[in-house]
Amino acid sequence: MLSRRSLNATLIAGLVGLAALPAIASSAKFSADALKAAQATGKPVLVDVTAPWCPTCKAQAAVLSELDKQERFKGFIKLAVDFDMQKDALKTLNARMQSTLIVFKGDKEVGRLVGDARKDAIEALLAKAL
After folding, report:
1. Global model pTM greater than 0.70
2. How many domains does the chain have?
3. Residue 40, domain CATH
4. For the segment 42-85, what is each residue's pLDDT rounded down to a tens digit?
5. Fewer CB atoms inside 10 A, N or C side of the chain?
């Protein structure tokens, strides 16, 4: 049986998750095979380590959605890692916390941003993979 506090926490987490859906919906779910396939295309790759309860992740999603409208960033392949559910992926990527953005150019990691939702910082990160 759920306590009122547990129920409220669950409802709040669900609402926060719904708010982040537009940005996540444009991303494919991360797997090692999906990353290799994305890298093989020669397009820049963004891996977004996110959690539905994370306010920084939500802010990053809003910035990424805005930047995605810029022509120079439209070619990115986006892969989403669920921080709570994909622990093996976290180990593969050496990601220790949610709100981690990682960019790849080919098979090389060219940049990483953790816990930062500033538009200029995210834009600079994405530019490294172009």
Report:
1. yes
2. 1
3. 3.40.30.10
4. 999 999 999 999 999 999 999 999 999 999 998 899 999 999 99
5. N
Q: Domain containing 87: what range?
A: 4-127
> Nearest 5°: phi and psi at 9?
-60, -40
Distance from C-alpha of 85 to C-alpha of 11, rounded to nearest angstrom: 18
6-23: pLDDT as tens digits: 444 443 444 334 333 333
The identity of residue 99, as a single letter, is S
- Copy the structure tokens of residue 60: 């990053």
Tokens of 16: 């926060």
Determine the Cα–Cα distance for residues 25 and 99; give it in Å rounded to an integer: 17
Q: What are the φ and ψ backbone dihedral angles of 114, each rounded to 5 degrees?
A: -125, 125
